[in-house]
Amino acid sequence: MEGWHTGHEWIDSGTLSERVGFAERQFADRSKPGIQDILSRAGSLNGESSEIVDRCLDVMGAIQVSEQTHAALVAYTDELKGMKSEDGDETSGIHNLLQMIASTVDYQFV
Question: What is the superkingdom listed in this entry's lineage (predicted)?
Fold first, then answer.
């Protein structure tokens, strides 16, 4: 009998898609107490984008991501900083960034 698969070997594109979808659903509802706690610890979009990304990665579990992923997250943060929330909620940008982090392959392989 074969043992439980761990690491990269058990994830295929279908499994990865399911995991990303699950993470997106978990982070979608900002009214959940756990999401509110993460948002409060992550802070705001004020400051350097690279520092914001690093802070959010730390809040999400001290995740190490590839340089390519980090650069993409920094660019995404720059975009978010230029957008205004339709509902006036200052946590919208951080919430979107956390959702993006949760949907990265780097996060899924943690």
Answer: Bacteria
Token readout for 93 is: 């940008």
Question: Measured between alpha carbons, how far is 26 from 12 in angstroms, rounded to an integer?
Answer: 21
Residue 44 CA to residue 41 CA, distance in Å, equals 9
Q: How big is the chain by its Cα radius of gyration, in Å?
A: 15
Backbone angles phi, psi at 35, to 5 degrees: -70, -40
Q: Is residue 49 part of a domain?
A: yes
Within-domain flag for 2: no
Range of the domain at 99: 12-108
Tell me whether residue 8 is exposed, middle or buried, using C-beta atoms within 10 angstroms of its C-beta: 0 to 12, 13 to 18, 19 or more. exposed
Could you tell me if residue 3 is inside a domain?
Answer: no
pLDDT in tens, 63-91: 899 999 999 999 999 999 988 666 666 77
pTM of the model: 0.78
Q: How far apart are CA 54 and CA 102, in angstroms?
A: 14
